[in-house]
Amino acid sequence: MELTRQQIKYIDHRLENEGIKYWDIRIELLDHVVSYVEQKLKPENSEYEFKEFVQESFESLGWRENFNGDAFEKVFLKRNVLNAKKIRKKYGQEIKSKFTSIFFLLEVFLLWVFLFLIHKNSFFIKLTFTLEIIAVVLFLIFFVVKYQLFKSSQLNAVFSFAVIPVSVHNLLIFAPQILFDYEKMNLTHAAVTLALIFPFLYIGFNFMLKEAKSSQKIYNKLME
Q1: 43 Cβ partners below 8 Å, 6+ apart?
Q2: Looking at residues 170-198, what average pLDDT do you find?
Q3: What are the residue ranges spanned by the domains of the chain?
Q4: What are the backbone dihedrals phi and psi of residue 10, each rounded to the nearest 5 degrees, phi first?
Q5: Which of 69, 126, 156, 200 has a CA positioned 20 to 30 A from the CA of residue 62?
């Protein structure tokens, strides 16, 4: 028997109250619960029996009674880990795809030529660094706000992998100053760091946008 919109909302709210805060994990479980209940439910069944079937499906998924909430804690953690593994694999494929693309390699080459031409010019190196920092900050703010980053397991994983180049960039820039007590940034060192990191920043942020748009389409379709 097909469930009503109100019954589906009831299941969704229960999943959220039981500790499934990320909408993408919740939708995975919601699909399972709805299918389970629809197979069991008959027109003559009462609302109480409907809720009993929902509880049965929860237990089949791994629900465990927890008076502090988070009754799906183990299920949530397992799904979160699986999502992280899936995103890591997709991110690796994205990097491989880009570095086997002639067009992308040409873009990287042109970037390196540009940095080589300006690497002795303090003004242009500082300007390039400043523009990069501004672009990264604005992009991250846009991404977090528009795509509700902290409500999605997969987008959290995407964010974690995609911003790794930012951390590596900071390490490469500041490590020589800390280790060798440089007072001023070496321009050649700065240019080489930009040349190495910028392609990975581009790949990471492009990957974030692709995954976010894909997730948003799924979310919108399921929440219609």
Answers
A1: 1
A2: 72
A3: 5-71, 82-222
A4: -60, -45
A5: 156
